[in-house]
């Protein structure tokens, strides 16, 4: 075996060995008697989001495939968290990293990629990212990671401390250790694929609910089975929703889907800040809206049980967008109506 690959794999495994698992936080919501809500806090990874897991998986996958070797330039199409996390692992094993992103990407994101020694290559708009990354990889004999294609298969879905195994292990001593549902939004669809496969593999009595924001085709693709549906508009909830069904999105692992208005996602993230004193990203708000919707349904049917979702990233990244009232009024719309319905739901009663 190639000694360099052996060493690179060992470096990533040693880093994982030194890492702690992320917390599973229990929420206290008095009005939901008998329904226990949990948040898996993926913002606490060293690079700040659930993409830390994906980046580790993609690097190990490409190394073990022999696609990344000594000196191979690694390239990704990402304007977001994936580029930041991949830059971290590229630096760890000493390979060059280039993130292909739209020119209008937030300065803070560009800075973070550069902080980890990555380079940013700009294209004019998001739809050009994929092809530009593939071309760049061909030209420099590099490796295009292609998260939207490989996310679903790079992670060991049967276990190996993946996010699903971790959730079920951390739930073990709870009063309802097997969640009635796990709720998750989809970006690459990688996390829902891991959760859904693991649930079936272990035979758990847990349903997987996927939540989708506005301007995304995932909900329609799941409903109709038609993977060719496309829209020509980008979404407003960072990290989730896609204008087309990328290969990594696996509808058949999902038991149920809900569409969540973007303003409802933002209302839910504000609600969590009130409850926990912490800011989270907007996709976490989408997850929460889905979880609270299920909780309301369970209360209606007098059911007890537990529900689990994820904190995907922290809100500190979005102080000048989702946490800026003017920006929200201009870009998202009226959040107050959803804040009101959350207040009614959580006041304990009928709406
Ligand atoms: C990527 C991402 C998601 C969705 O996770 P996938 O596994 O890619 O479907 C949700 N929220 C944020 C902030 C993300 O970066």
From TrEMBL:
This is L-cysteine desulfhydrase Cds1. It catalyses: L-cysteine + H2O = hydrogen sulfide + pyruvate + NH4(+) + H(+); O-acetyl-L-serine + hydrogen sulfide = L-cysteine + acetate. GO terms for biological process: L-cysteine catabolic process to pyruvate. A cysteine desulfhydrase that generates hydrogen sulfide, H(2)S. The H(2)S produced by this enzyme may modulate central metabolism. Transmembrane segments: none annotated. It comes from Amphritea opalescens. It comes from the Bacteria. Residues 21-313 form the Tryptophan synthase beta chain-like PALP domain. It is found in: Cytoplasm. Signal peptide: none annotated. Belongs to the cysteine synthase/cystathionine beta-synthase family. Cds1 subfamily. Its cofactor is pyridoxal 5'-phosphate.
């Amino acid at each position: 075996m190639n000694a360099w690959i052996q060493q690179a794999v060992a470096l990533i495994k040693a880093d994982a060995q030194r890492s702690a698992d992320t917390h599973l936080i229990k929420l206290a919501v008095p009005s939901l008697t008998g329904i226990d809500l949990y948040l898996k806090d993926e913002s606490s990874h060293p690079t700040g989001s659930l993409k830390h897991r994906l980046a580790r998986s993609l690097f190990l996958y490409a190394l073990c495939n022999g696609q990344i070797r000594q000196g191979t330039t690694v390239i990704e199409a990402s304007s977001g968290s994936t580029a930041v996390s991949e830059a971290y692992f590229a630096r760890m094993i000493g390979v060059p990293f280039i993130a292909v992103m739209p020119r209008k990407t937030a300065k803070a994101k560009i800075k973070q990629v550069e902080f980890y020694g990555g380079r940013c290559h700009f294209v004019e708009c998001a739809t050009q990212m994929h092809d530009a990354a593939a071309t760049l990889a061909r030209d420099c004999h590099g490796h295009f990671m292609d998260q939207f294609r490989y996310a679903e298969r790079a992670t060991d879905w049967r276990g190996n401390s993946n996010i699903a195994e971790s959730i079920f292990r951390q739930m073990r001593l709870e009063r309802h250790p097997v969640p009635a549902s796990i709720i998750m939004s989809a970006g690459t669809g990688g996390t829902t694929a891991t959760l859904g496969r693991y649930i079936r593999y272990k035979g758990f009595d847990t349903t997987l609910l996927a939540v989708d924001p506005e301007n995304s085709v995932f909900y329609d693709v799941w409903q109709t089975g038609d993977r060719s549906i496309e829209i020509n508009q980008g979404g407003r909830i960072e990290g989730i929703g896609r204008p087309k069904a990328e290969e990594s999105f696996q509808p058949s692992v999902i038991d149920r889907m809900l569409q969540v208005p973007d303003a409802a996602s933002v209302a839910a993230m504000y609600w969590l800040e009130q409850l926990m004193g912490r800011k989270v990203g907007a996709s976490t708000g989408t997850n929460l809206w889905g979880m609270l919707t299920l909780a309301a349904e369970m209360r209606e049917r007098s059911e007890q049980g537990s529900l689990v979702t994820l904190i995907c990233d922290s809100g500190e990244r979005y102080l000048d967008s989702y946490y800026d009232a003017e920006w929200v009024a201009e870009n998202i719309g009226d959040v107050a109506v959803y804040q009101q319905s959350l207040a009614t739901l959580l006041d304990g009663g009928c709406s």
